[in-house]
TrEMBL record, chains A, B:
It comes from Streptosporangium carneum. PANTHER family: GERANYLGERANYL PYROPHOSPHATE SYNTHASE, SHORT CHAIN ISOPRENYL DIPHOSPHATE SYNTHASE. One of its GO terms (biological process) is isoprenoid biosynthetic process. Its cofactor is Mg(2+). Pfam families: polyprenyl_synt. GO terms for molecular function: metal ion binding; prenyltransferase activity. It comes from the Bacteria. Belongs to the FPP/GGPP synthase family. CDD domains: Trans_IPPS_HT. This is Geranylgeranyl pyrophosphate synthase. Keywords: Magnesium, Metal-binding, Transferase.
Length: 355, 355
């Protein structure tokens, strides 16, 4: 095991511990027995996960000379609450049934309604409860961040980045809705969505938060590094996500095979497919993409076209090329050698993952 | 015009100004032309409103000796962002078409999708965009609060109340969903929902925030006052809301006549109706309440039963009695005379409003 893989294990267990402590501190506020399903859903959506966002934040902090401070794990772990909130709301917006192989939050609450034989629409109850759960996680992410115990000077320096990240995430997700609704799906628009809906808050901003917390200010080299490394890894991270959404192994992704095809997600993979497809292939894609009833044969047919048009290979090439650029951007960044190695390893991990 | 009515006018215009300034400061972050509908929807849902929550906060601050400070208006105005977020999400959860006589946020985005002839489900787009808009408003409420410019010592003292209020709001709304889903609808459960879903964050917590900000600590008399006055006015506020949802004038409420009947809201008004109704009346209520297609005749019939059973009069009596208790609770509170008068006037305004 390399030093940075060992460090990632430490980060994961510290993040798990911080999240558990935080949720435990909320319990007195949400102690009414009827609220138990809300808390257990929150806990479930916070468990597991690759903890990549906290890891970017952690290595930003250490890269800019931050010392060992357990409060940093708490601040970094708060990014997982933001992420959990986004996933819960995303699944409502996409009407997704599964998340990591388990029922999505709204389906979970819907099942509770059905099991108890309550009045009214179980589906509407499920959606409402999931919206509220996502809000709770969103509120808690800010609360955990502020209450991390990091020095006020660090938190004050990073506050603007933190605020910006959250507004940007909501705007990025709105751009993603528009991308799905618009028919254009150009390379440019697909790239922009990949960056704003996911790349920024998954990589660039967590890294920037760690760096600014440690440096207690937003120095020009920090923005240069975050824009170069963060942008490249962020886009490549989302391109990997797009590929997993079509070609991922359900046993690893926890989502049905080809789920993004059934949802009709307009990604770079699809933009490249349509750009290189024959008129006959375009007709097939237009007819099948976004069909909620798409079966295994249909998924296989679309996968075939995505491969035959060279779109899959082109996206893999893009990932490689963004990864190279990201690794190069680390060369002259004034960060510690240990952080440089760890960020290089994280870039590889984030873009070659299988879940 | 009384002194406190004049003060309310000042509060309203200062809150409007603060909100406008805050949204203007966000504009550079959300400057992409495609994001314009998100911003204009935010602005629309922030305009108007009675600004009661900021007024409770303002009079808490002044009551506990807070001086004139424009930053207080900014902190108080942030409560309107929280409220706007709750309304936008509420309308999604209730599938409401109208808000203050205009299309609700999700219907607005749905109409944009339809007008532009975009791909996919206009309804799903509308809901997704409204969830994101509500999130943006929720994030901004915290940001505006923290960035108000009030002294750090004040903000630090009030932070726990602020955090608590937000968690409590989400839990209260979840309890409301449960109340609608459960069949019991007892007086106790209706009262609890009225308090937690609306009363606490509308009255008790805004007042507590103002008091704690000024006193820079949560002194025992503050909690005593907030629990007595806040609880009474908060519950009476929601009881008035329940009555307006059934008997309100659409020209004033901006909601269709009897909308709560169509949505099947289980409120104190309904609990009291069912408790006093004859078996024949219960049958009518059970058959008609929650019917989305309920017409004017049906609304009239249900209104008749609510009046005949004495439920309407009983709820009006409850409001009067809570109001009396609230006014009494002000007597020995160690607050300024001006604040005492203003809080008495506000209690009347909040419980006798027609919109």
């Amino acid at each position: 095991m390399t030093a940075s893989a060992a460090a990632l294990d430490t980060i994961r267990s510290e993040v798990d511990r911080s999240l558990k402590e935080f949720v435990d501190r909320q319990r007195p506020l949400v102690s009414a027995p009827e609220l138990a399903p809300l808390i257990s859903a929150a806990e479930e959506f916070l468990s597991g996960g690759k903890r990549l966002r906290p890891a970017f934040c952690y290595w930003g902090w250490h890269g800019a000379g931050g010392g060992d401070d357990p409060a940093l794990f708490t601040a970094a772990a708060s990014l997982e609450l933001l992420q959990a909130s986004a996933l819960v709301h995303d699944d409502v917006m996409d009407a997704s049934d599964l998340r990591r192989g388990m029922p999505s939050a709204h389906r979970r609450f819907q099942a509770l309604h059905e099991k108890e034989g309550w009045r009214g629409s179980a589906e509407q109850f499920g959606e409402g409860a999931a919206i509220l759960l996502g809000n709770l996680l969103l509120i808690w992410s800010g609360e955990m961040w502020r209450g991390s115990g990091l020095p006020q000077a660090s938190l004050a320096a990073a506050q603007e980045v933190h605020d910006h990240m959250r507004t940007e995430l909501m705007c990025g997700q709105y751009l993603d809705l528009l991308e799905q609704a618009h028919a254009d799906n150009t390379f440019d628009s697909a790239l922009r969505v990949a960056l704003f809906k996911s790349g920024k808050y998954s990589v660039e901003q967590p890294l920037r938060l760690g760096l600014v917390l440690a440096a207690r200010g937003r120095e020009p080299w920090i923005d240069r590094l975050c824009e170069a490394y963060g942008r490249c890894v962020g886009i490549a991270f989302q391109l990997r996500d797009d590929i997993l959404g079509v070609f991922g192994d359900p046993a690893e992704t926890g989502k049905p095979a080809g789920d993004d095809l059934r949802e009709g997600k307009r990604t770079m993979l699809i933009a490249r497919t349509l750009a290189a497809a024959s008129p006959a292939q375009v007709k097939v894609v237009d007819g099948m993409l976004g069909d909620p009833g798409l079966d295994a044969a249909g998924v296989g047919r679309l996968r075939g076209i995505i491969e035959e048009t060279g779109a899959l290979a082109a996206c893999e090439d893009m990932i490689k090329s963004y990864l190279d650029d990201a690794l190069n951007s680390l060369d002259d960044a004034p960060i510690t050698g240990e952080a440089r190695t760890a960020l290089a390893d994280l870039a590889v991990a984030a873009t070659s993952r299988r879940t």
